[in-house]
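TA notes, week 10

Several of you asked for a full example with nothing omitted. So below is the full record: structure tokens for the whole chain, then the designed sequence directly under it. When grading your own attempts, check the secondary structure regions first.
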């Protein structure tokens, strides 16, 4: 489904991604794990086409995602770490419907689709609420719905549990485990990685240190890349 080929990226003179390559099958759930500054968020932004690589390429079903950015952004949905970056309308359903309304869909049809997307994340009851009055977990559910309404082939999530309390974190982990679409999740929450992902790509200083879920229990390896046992 996805083929990342020798990807490199720099911020000025500082290398953030150094020759990363991996392939992903349809339906896989992959966690990208690493300490702060390891390159997780940059890698996700490259896959979501928010950034362009210095060199290398990313293929989706054999075609470069950078050859047609509009088409690629319809197929790859990014949920930001901070849901407030995605929520800005007066009512929740309007935020969820924004993507299809901007394409010219009628309001009544868009609202029906928004309610359906909200039902996928168990948040239909929030439809008429004001986003800024939601809890952190509720906001994150709505942020996921704003992406799901566009029916992406690949869902990308950046640190989905980073700012949540224990109960909200547990609920989001359960939700992500139930979503059947292909997922790439950047996190340093290794307990979540253990529950959701059938594969873990470990990053260290912009490079792949390992690509194996069984290293989640290897204390020596985890310490070597700045992580702790889940």
């Amino acid at each position: 489904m996805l083929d990342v080929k020798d990807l490199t990226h720099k911020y000025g003179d500082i290398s953030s991604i150094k020759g990363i390559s991996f392939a992903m099958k349809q339906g896989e759930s992959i966690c990208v794990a690493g300490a702060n500054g390891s390159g997780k968020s940059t890698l996700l932004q490259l896959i979501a086409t928010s950034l362009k690589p210095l060199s290398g390429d990313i293929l989706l079903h054999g075609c470069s995602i950078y050859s047609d950015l509009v088409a690629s952004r319809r197929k790859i949905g990014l949920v930001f770490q901070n849901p407030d970056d995605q929520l800005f309308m007066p009512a929740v359903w309007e935020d969820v419907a924004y993507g299809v309304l901007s394409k010219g869909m009628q309001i009544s049809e868009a609202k029906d689709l928004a309610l359906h997307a909200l039902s996928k994340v168990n948040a239909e009851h929030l439809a008429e609420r004001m986003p800024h009055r939601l809890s952190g977990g509720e906001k994150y559910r709505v942020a996921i719905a704003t992406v799901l309404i566009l029916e992406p082939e690949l869902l990308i999530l950046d640190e989905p549990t980073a700012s949540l309390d224990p109960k909200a974190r547990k609920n989001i982990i359960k939700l992500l485990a139930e979503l059947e679409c292909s997922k790439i999740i950047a996190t340093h929450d290794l307990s979540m990685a253990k529950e959701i992902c059938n594969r873990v790509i470990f990053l260290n200083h912009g490079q792949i240190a390992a690509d194996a879920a069984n290293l989640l229990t290897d204390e020596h390896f985890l310490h070597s890349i700045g992580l702790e046992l889940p």
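DSSP finds eight helices and ten strands in the chain. Use that as a sanity check on your answer.
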